[in-house]
Specification:
Helix content: 10-25%
Low-confidence stretches: none
CATH architecture: Beta Barrel
């Protein structure tokens, strides 16, 4: 199971129309750093979430190996406001 998490890292090249975020999440009871490539508009939403210490979530195909954890085919990205945590 993959739960929403806090943003730990953001990276974006000026000429690219995508950005990569890294979130800290718990997967099957283990803390992981999950890398996710996002379209540029969602990347900028994540940038704002990081600044405001908000949690984000995203749906996709989770690939876990010994060296890395990636969420590919990312979709349904959203920033979770504090009021949404207990809905």
């Amino acid at each position: 199971m993959f739960h929403p998490g806090y943003l730990a890292k953001l990276s974006h090249q000026e000429e690219d129309n995508i950005g990569t975020i890294t979130i800290l999440a718990t997967i099957n009871g283990v803390d992981k750093s999950v890398n996710i490539e996002l379209p540029i508009n969602e990347y900028w939403q994540s940038h704002s979430a990081h600044k405001n210490l908000q949690i984000v979530e995203c749906v996709g195909d989770l690939h876990v190996n010994q060296r890395s954890t990636k969420l590919i085919n990312a979709r349904e990205f959203r920033v979770i406001s504090n009021g949404d945590l207990f809905d």
